[in-house]
Amino acid sequence: SDLRQMLATQSVENIQFLPFLTTQVNNLSWLGYGLLKQDSTLITVNAIGAALQSLYILAYLYYSPSKGPMLLRSLLLLALLAAGYGYFSLLVPEPRTRLARLGLFCSLFTISMYLSPLADLARIIRSRSTRCLSFPLTVTTFLASSSWTLYGLQLQDLYIMVPNMPGVFTSVARFWLFWQYPPGQEKPY
């Protein structure tokens, strides 16, 4: 729905960039974890997710009036991802150790992805407006984090299960914000 809104309005007003950028890095990291673990579910879901996030980022950059900061953030996270790839490929030769370290790396990014929409929490409470939050993204985050938590539980993979639990909790917090500050009842700054 955010992509549809950008295309319809040809604007990125009230759409956050950081959650989608962290989701892109998250998808690419988990894709690497899935390839190393040879888990077709992780590979398929994260390959599709990375393709969709690339489309979103390109549209956001196209419609953004200030491309510089967005492009810089994208390049910094891409450089971090490349450094991580180099580290895991060249400096950690033992596959089991590489899987554990990559799992920890992916876990940290997953947690940051789930916390990023709450970056504007003070502004939301001060303005009593959830206008900068995406309700569809909140719903999909809740469903995705719940699904991945259950999948990790089924596989007994703590690297999948544990970092997705904050996604469930932050989604519930965002649902509460939507309930507390319904759209259309904005208070001007």
From TrEMBL:
Membrane topology per record: Multi-pass membrane protein
Gene3D superfamilies: 1.20.1280.290
Gene Ontology cellular-component terms listed: Golgi membrane; plasma membrane
Keyword presence, Membrane: yes
Keywords of this entry: Cell membrane, Golgi apparatus, Membrane, Repeat, Sugar transport, Transmembrane, Transmembrane helix, Transport
Segments crossing the lipid bilayer: 43-63, 75-93, 99-121, 133-153, 159-179
Cell compartment(s), UniProt: Cell membrane; Golgi apparatus membrane
Entry GO MF terms: sugar transmembrane transporter activity
Domain of life: Eukaryota
Keyword flag Transmembrane helix: yes
Entry similarity comment: Belongs to the SWEET sugar transporter family.
Protein name in UniProt: Sugar transporter SWEET1
Organism of origin: Bucco capensis (collared puffbird)
